[in-house]
Amino acid sequence: MSLLARLAPHLPYVRRYARALTGDQTTGDHYVRVALEALAAGERVLESNLTPRVALYHVFHAIWLSTGAQLEPPADVTEGTDDASRRLMRIAPRSRQAFLLTALEGFTPSEAAQILGADFAEVERLIGEAQAEIDAELATEVLIIEDEPVIAADIEALVTELGHTVVDIAATRTEAVDAINRRTPGLVLADIQLADGSSGIDAVKDILARFDIPVIFITAFPERLLTGERPEPTFLITKPFQPETVKAAIGQALFFHPRNTRKAA
User: Buried b vs exposed e over 70-79: b needs ≥16 C-beta within 10 Å?
Assistant: First the structure.
């Protein structure tokens, strides 16, 4: 099997991870491209004792670590620096990696240890440090766009458990727009396929045309967004989802979004 065939199923997800890690789609894609070029040129190889997905992330990290200092804000960042950069500074790169690998990408701590070249105990410690930083962020108000009542209730419970407030649950594009007109939330959690055949993607476009709000898509159809043909969401969760994955994505979305989320909009 060719290198491309082995890695193709995993590329959309390593790109998603790279964007979440760096806080920027262009930068994340650059590092993924450099990793692939290194593999194609024979400068890096996939470790034979690892699964293809774990091996790909391992190579990505080798590339990222070799040049990653460029991604970190300088030590003398001033008050004029944007919120995203200040938030990135508050989570050390190593902790950020461990947290994203396990909570967002779904790797086990053992797999994350293989990717990072660390031991299990260190990964557990890094995850805890990152979570503590994220939990320090204050709560916000959340709009859920989901047409399945049971799933919507599950998401609402997770959001509430994290200390956030659900301001509305919309089952259609029209309901979502009406909800946003009544009260502007600080975060949107959206499905793609809605009750009346309308699209959660279109609902989010309507919202983002008016407000700068972080969005997390939770969908059974991730391939509709991970096409590489248009700007893609940094936070995309596949159904059926793990509660910890949703919690992690919420924390990361609020943490990295380049605006002050300390108060509900």
Answer: ebeeeeeeee
